[in-house]
Every structure is written in structure tokens, then in C-alpha cells.
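Hi again,

Forgot to attach this to my earlier email, sorry! This is the prediction with adenosine-5'-[phenylalaninyl-phosphate] bound. I've pasted everything inline since the attachment limit keeps bouncing my files.
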Amino acid sequence: MTLDELEARCEEVRMEWAQASAAAHDPEALEALRVRFLGRKGSVTSLFDALRALPPDARATAGKLLNALKGEITAALDDRRGALEREAIGARLQAERCDLSLPGTWRPLGRLHPLTQVRLEIEDIFQKLGFDVASGPEVETDYYNFEALAIGADHPARDDWDSFYIEDRLLLRTHTSPVQIRVMKSQPPPVRIVCPGRCYRRDDPDATHSPVFHQIELLWVEKGLTMAHLKWIIGEFVSAFFGPGYEMRFSADFFPFTEPSAQIHIRRPPGDWLEIMGAGMVDPAVLVEVGYDPEEVSGFAFGLGVERMAMLRWGIEDIRLFYQNDIRFLSQF
Ligand code: FA5
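C-alpha cells for the complex follow:
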């Protein structure tokens, strides 16, 4: 091969490159081009082999020509590769484009059931007054639910608290008062507790009664407590919970485990009076039953209906609304 022939061959290869590279649009095609032109058997590489056949004085010129050709093709390959990568990144950015100014998916937040809100608030009021929160079982023995509270087997008060029996002497508790007995039996006086919990009665459901409802029991036993303390603490509690605009009424009542006993009604004029709790001075017989000395200490207790408190606060006229799980009702609180 002569120098002229080599020059002509270079020009051909350059044309071939121009055509072939114009049609290469992806990394695989570029790699194929590299092999075809610069690979071990590539067209540029084989021209380098032809160099050896040239006369020595022509080799330097020919070498420059070939190096220039190889340099052009290498640089063009690099350029094309860079451009393809930038295109790919651009396409990905476009495809994965995310508009941070768009509003997110809105999911409604849950909230505490109104009865839970009321219970927590009442616990909080009494904790601030120095009471502890206690609890007891919902399945109770006849002894704690009745006997220890001076409600013997034949006591007519049992009719008011007729309940659901699991076995002969095992029932769903009818009130939270059995927790009083459990706590007093477990510790010496003084006692200052509130006990929230679920209660069960065979009451026909109506606007103010539910067979399952909630009470909060309060018990304070200490030296020197009188009915005046009871009235005072209930007054404090009612005004802390309801604020102004509510009226409270004490009237005489009877419970086998308190003497004297009272019931407390609340109303928001012009609404009706609603009984919210039973209360009274702990009967000395109960103190003796748990091993306390009635000459040493006295105490008082009450049992408060949680649903009734919520009804008065929000003007809810039917207790059954609390248990229907209607989101339109619940989301108002
Ligand atoms: C009692 O349960 C007594 N253990 C209260 C007590 C405790 C008296 C300590 C003295 C000392 P009573 O049955 O009245 O009392 O119920 C108390 C409150 O529970 C009622 O005022 C009412 O607010 C609520 N309650 C009673 N039965 C139901 C019911 N079926 N549905 C909703 N609330 C009820």
C-alpha cells in the first residue's frame, strides 16, 4: 500500500464512520461502532497494521494521519456517549417529575371517643385534687359486688342492680363500688381514689339508660371527714367540669353501703334535671367489713355516670348515640 492509497482509505473510513455513527442512538449501538472501528479487528486498527508495509520514509506521515483519524473517532465516541447519558438522565427526570407544590393525600384524623374524653377529664380533675386512679375486674364475685357492700342475698336493693350472671355467684359488675372494697382491703387508711370502669345492668335501653355504661367511683377515707367535705368536693368537681351556667341539686337517697345517702342531679336551664350520681358517707358496717376502725376514720364515696356527664356537657338527648359508632355523630367532639 502506498501513502496515497492509505490516505484514500482513511477518507473512506471517515465517511463510513460518519454514516454509521449518525444511525447509532443507544449505548449498545455505540459499543458496536467502537468494536467495528477501533476493536482488535476494527477498520482503523487494521490500517495501523498496513503501516508496517509502507516504505520507512512514509511511515511518519502515515502514522500522523492514522493517529488523527483514531483521535477523531475516539473523541466522537466519547461525545456521543456523554450526550446519550445526559439524554437518559433528562428522560428519567422528566418521567419521575414530582410537583412538590401539589396538595398531599388528605386522610381524616381519628380522635378519642367522647366518653373517653370525659373520663380522662374527670380523672384529671381528681388527680389534681390528690386522688389516685384505681381499677378492678368487670367480672366480679357476689361478695364484692353485693355482700361486702351490705347488700345481702335477700336485700331488696338487689332488684335495682339485677345483673348478668356468669355463674351462680359470679356476675358482670353492676357498679364500680366493689373497687372500693378491693382497695380498702389492700391497704390501711387514708384512701383517696377514683375508679373508672364499665358496668352492666339488666336495664331496658332508653334515652338515659343503657345495659352497658360507665361509672367513675370516688372514695375518700380519712380521719375527720364529714358530709360537708362530700358536698364541698362535689361542688368543686361540678364547677370544674361544667363551668358556669349549670345548676346542681342534692336530695336524700338510700344505698345499703352509705349513711346518710344522697343523689345529685344537674341541669342546664331550661333543660331537665338529670341524675348524675349516687353518693354518701361510707356506712360504718362497710368500714368494719374491710378491717378499718369506724371510731378512727370516716369516709365518703360516690358513683358517677360518665354517659350522663357527657350528655349534659354537649346537650345530647339520647344515650344510645354513644354506642352507634356513627362517624357523623362522633366527629363532632
Ligand atoms: C350506684 O351505682 C352506686 N354504686 C353509687 C354510689 C357509690 C352510691 C358510692 C354511694 C356511694 P346508681 O345505681 O344510682 O348508684 O348509679 C349511679 C349513676 O350511674 C347514676 O346516677 C347514673 O348516672 C348512672 N347509671 C346507672 N344506671 C345507668 C344506666 N343503665 N345507663 C346509664 N347510666 C346509668
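The pocket of adenosine-5'-[phenylalaninyl-phosphate] is lined by residues 175, 177, 201, 203, 209-210, 213, 215, 217, 255, 258, 275-280, 301-303, 305, 307-308, 319 (CB under 6 Å). Residues 114-330 form a domain with the BirA Bifunctional Protein; domain 2 fold (CATH 3.30.930.10).

That should be everything now.

G.
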